[in-house]
């Protein structure tokens, strides 16, 4: 039995993404497969391919000192993002505005959930909290801690740990900020802005690659468990994907009646989805990669037979989708096959295997030419038996 062509495409889409050794390769493998999987013209996602940036950062135009500023800015930004992430979980009515290097302050803004119209809101309804973080102001972290504690809505067990993680990251962010303040004194304002812009772009690229990495990680865990248990049952990530699929199908699929009168599910993933990339909001990168992959995952495993076509290389951790159930292939590539057998052979055996393979090839060529000549002779009027005898004699067989 053979796997359906479309299901093979869904399967390859997933395993190519998982098998990729770097996030650069994974991103490109993803875009390579999209036109086939979603039945677009081959150049449909050309724009997305052009916009896809590899992790190698683009700061080669900077001097050593400028690169240093770039690195510290990146560190500062990472701590800022971590604070925002942590706050989002626990402080629905408070948002972190981050560090303002020029005024040496950090700011928290409140989000008002009252039903008052915006024009009637006063500062009392939406107070802002500003803290002086200059080195002379020693106890600003205590004040920050107090503010956060006051804003906890539903106290729970992990609060104090989360609070200290938030404070720790704010402190690191401020430390980096002060360092930038020092370092920027020796460069022009224009150069400073240029580095900041480079940092913002690069940060987006990093976010995208982090999303790819996270999805690869989930998929690897999931496939490993599926391969080991040969089942989708009790698999946490499968369950997570299915929950996520509810969101995806609400946004991207619809039901229709096929020509044969059967209800089928169609996807709305259009070329635009892939070409209008998510710059500006890093959270969308997760969606950009995860939605189509989960969609393919559901399509692939909806047919329980397809599980049998999913295989793992016997030499490396890579996966592949067999075309037929009778397929005896055990390796993802010829190189893995050789490495696998060579590991079990002595050097002498390796040499013999290479020689045998060469001889095999030569014999194949010989047989092919013999067959061709036989066909030719028969077409010239020779009886098959007679022609064979002549050719055997010639070959000394
Ligand atoms: Zn392999």
In short:
With 397 residues, the protein is mainly alpha-helical. The chain is 60% helix and 9% strand.
Provide an overview of this structure.
The chain has 397 residues and is mostly helical. The chain has 3 domains: 158 residues, Jann2411-like fold; 143 residues, no CATH class; 49 residues, no CATH class. It is 60% helix and 9% strand. It contains 13 helices and 7 strands. Strands 1-2-3 form a 3-stranded antiparallel sheet. Strand 6 and strand 7 form a beta hairpin. It starts with a helix and ends with a helix. Zinc ion binds next to loops. Zinc ion (ZN) binds next to loops.
Task: Record the SSE blueprint.
Blueprint: H1 5-19, H2 23-37, H3 46-51, H4 64-90, E1 94-100, E2 105-110, E3 128-132, H5 140-151, H6 159-183, H7 189-229, H8 236-252, E4 253-257, E5 263-267, H9 271-275, H10 283-302, E6 310-312, E7 319-321, H11 334-344, H12 347-379, H13 384-395
Antiparallel strand pairs: 1-2, 2-3, 4-5, 6-7
Bound molecules: zinc ion (ZN).
Zinc ion binds at residues 313, 315-316, 318, 331-333, 336.
Q: Features of this protein?
A:
mainly alpha; 397 residues; Jann2411-like fold; binds zinc ion; single chain
Named at the architecture level, the CATH assignment of the largest domain is Orthogonal Bundle
- The first-to-last residue Cα distance is 41 Å
How many strands appear in the DSSP assignment?
Answer: 7
Give me the number of helical elements: 13
Ligand inventory reads: zinc ion
Share of β-strand residues: 5-15%
Structural class: mainly alpha
């Amino acid at each position: 039995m053979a796997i359906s062509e479309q299901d093979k495409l869904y399967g390859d889409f997933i395993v190519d993404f998982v098998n990729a050794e770097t996030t650069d390769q994974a991103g490109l493998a993803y875009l390579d497969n999209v036109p086939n999987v979603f039945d677009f013209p081959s150049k449909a996602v050309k724009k997305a391919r052009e916009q896809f940036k590899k992790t190698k950062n683009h700061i080669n135009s900077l001097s050593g000192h400028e690169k240093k500023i770039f690195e510290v800015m990146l560190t500062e930004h990472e701590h800022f993002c971590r604070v925002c992430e942590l706050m989002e979980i626990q402080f629905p009515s408070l948002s972190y505005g981050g560090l303002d290097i020029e005024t040496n302050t950090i700011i928290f803004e409140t989000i008002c959930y009252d039903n008052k119209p915006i024009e009637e809101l006063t500062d009392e309804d939406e107070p802002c909290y500003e803290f002086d973080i200059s080195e002379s102001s020693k106890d600003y972290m205590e004040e920050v801690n107090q503010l956060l504690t006051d804003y906890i809505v539903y106290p729970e067990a992990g609060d104090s740990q989360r609070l200290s993680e938030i404070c720790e990251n704010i402190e690191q962010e401020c430390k980096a900020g002060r360092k930038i303040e020092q370092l920027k004194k020796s460069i022009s304002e224009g150069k400073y802005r240029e580095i900041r812009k480079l940092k913002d772009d690069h940060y987006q690229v990093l976010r995208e690659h982090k999303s790819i990495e996270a999805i690869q990680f989930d998929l690897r865990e999931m496939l490993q468990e599926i391969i080991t248990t040969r089942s989708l049952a009790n698999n946490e990530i499968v369950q997570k994907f299915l929950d996520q699929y509810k969101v995806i199908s609400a946004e991207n699929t619809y039901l229709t009646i096929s020509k044969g009168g059967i209800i089928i599910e169609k996807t709305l993933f259009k070329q635009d989805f892939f070409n209008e990339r998510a710059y500006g909001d890093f959270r969308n990168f997760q969606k950009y990669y995860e939605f189509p992959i989960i969609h393919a995952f559901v399509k692939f495993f909806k047919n329980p037979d397809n599980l049998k076509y999913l295989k793992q290389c016997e030499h490396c951790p890579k996966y592949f989708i067999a075309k037929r159930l009778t397929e005896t292939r055990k390796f993802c590539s010829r190189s893995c096959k050789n490495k696998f057998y060579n590991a079990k052979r002595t050097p002498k055996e390796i040499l013999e295997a290479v020689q045998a393979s060469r001889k095999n090839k030569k014999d194949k060529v010989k047989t092919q030419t013999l067959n061709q000549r036989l066909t030719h002779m028969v077409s010239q009027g020779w009886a098959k038996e007679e022609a064979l005898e002549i050719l055997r004699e010639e070959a000394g067989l």
